[in-house]
Amino acid sequence: MTDVEHIQIVRHIELAEIERVIAELGSTGSKSDAKLRKRLEFVRLRYKGYPVLQAADALGINPQSGYNWQKAWNDGGMQPLVPHFNGGRPPRIDDSQKERLLAEIEKEPMTTQEVTRFIHDRFRVTYSEKQVHVILSGMGLRHAKPYQKDYRQPKDAETGLKKTSPMVWLL
């Protein structure tokens, strides 16, 4: 008795309408449309008589997701299957603060440690050095030794350009 389906799929719309919507979603490239398309593929398979376990296996999803999608479909049709993305967590420093940070780095090149301290002192936000590296790289900055291969070398070029000298962020 393991193949008996206890909860049937509710037929809110015709199978042809589901297939038409799936075809329309196939031409778009958005992430949300791809997720909705996969969910509607599951409903299409259930309309065709596949049990939840087989339909989930055919689409490569967890059976519990299949049961969840079927419950959402049965409760409200297509609308509950539409994924909702709220944009994620907001950044701890906004774009204007990043612009001020960039302006400060343009005035005086800083090491990652110095930038981390600057962000903490100026904006009261604590980031790890790794995250500061990710933020600065995303802003188009590159990590390099100052004056490297430059005719305007400082007088202490021997010590300043050693491998152990600190790396700074440059534009």
Keywords:
2 strands; 171 residues; two-stranded antiparallel ribbon; 2 domains; single chain; 8 helices; 4% strand; mainly alpha
Describe the protein.
It is a single chain. This protein has 171 residues and is mainly alpha-helical. The chain folds into 2 domains: 67 residues; 76 residues. 53% of the residues lie in helices and 4% in strands. The protein is built from 8 helices and 2 strands. Strands 1-2 form a two-stranded antiparallel ribbon. Helix 1 packs antiparallel against helix 2, helix 2 runs antiparallel to helix 3 and helix 3 crosses helix 4. The longest helix has 17 residues. It is rod-shaped, with a radius of gyration of 28 Å. The termini are far apart. 12% of the residues are buried. The model has no long low-confidence stretch (mean pLDDT 86).
Mean pLDDT: 86
The proportion of strand residues reads: under 5%
Number of strands: 2
Write the element-wise H/E pattern from the N-terminal end onward. HHHHHHHEHE
Shape summary: rod-shaped
Structural class: mainly alpha
Provide the domain count. Answer: 2
Rg measurement, Å = 28 Å
Name the poorly predicted regions.
none
The number of helical runs is 8
Side by side, the strands of the main sheet go 1-2
Distance between the termini: 68 Å
The major sheet is characterized as: 2 strands, antiparallel
Helix content: 40-55%
List the topology elements.
Layout: H1 15-26, H2 31-47, H3 52-59, H4 63-76, H5 95-107, H6 112-123, H7 129-138, E1 142-144, H8 157-160, E2 168-170
Antiparallel strand pairs: 1-2
Helix pairs in contact: 1-2, 2-3, 3-4
